[in-house]
Design a protein that fits this description.
With about 60 residues, the chain is mostly helical. The chain is built from 2 helices and no strands. The longest helix is centred in the C-terminal third of the chain and has 40 residues. About 5% of the residues are buried.
């Protein structure tokens, strides 16, 4: 779902901005870890979406027969 990926990437950007704005090292590190987690979720969602599209494309020609 592309919209889910967008949400994940927006959250990652928010975490990055909060990390850059923080004066506290532990808060900055926490936000950078959160950013990495959001980006990982976005990448995983993109792989899942691509695999689903590939499966659906493979099924389409068979259904037309």
């Amino acid at each position: 779902m592309a919209s889910q990926t967008i949400i994940y990437r927006q959250q990652a950007a928010k975490c990055r901005a909060e990390a850059e704005a923080s004066d506290l090292a532990n808060v900055r590190e926490r936000n950078l870890r959160a950013e990495a987690a959001w980006l990982a979720m976005a990448e995983r969602q993109e792989r899942t979406d691509a695999a689903r599209e590939k499966r659906e494309a493979a099924v389409q020609p068979r259904q037309e027969l």
